[in-house]
């Protein structure tokens, strides 16, 4: 597992998530641990290294 820190797109608090590098590109929704709003998370891995990460709100 890979721990990644970033800012929540809703409350702007610094949070962390555990990411699974066994899948090179994935998109899923996880709730913010501070404000509980849903965040669409898209990590991209190459050879178990995180090379891209996007966290965005899903309430457009």
TrEMBL record:
InterPro entries: zinc_ribbon_bacterial. It holds the Pfam family Zn_ribbon_21. This is CPXCG motif-containing cysteine-rich protein. It comes from Pelagihabitans pacificus.
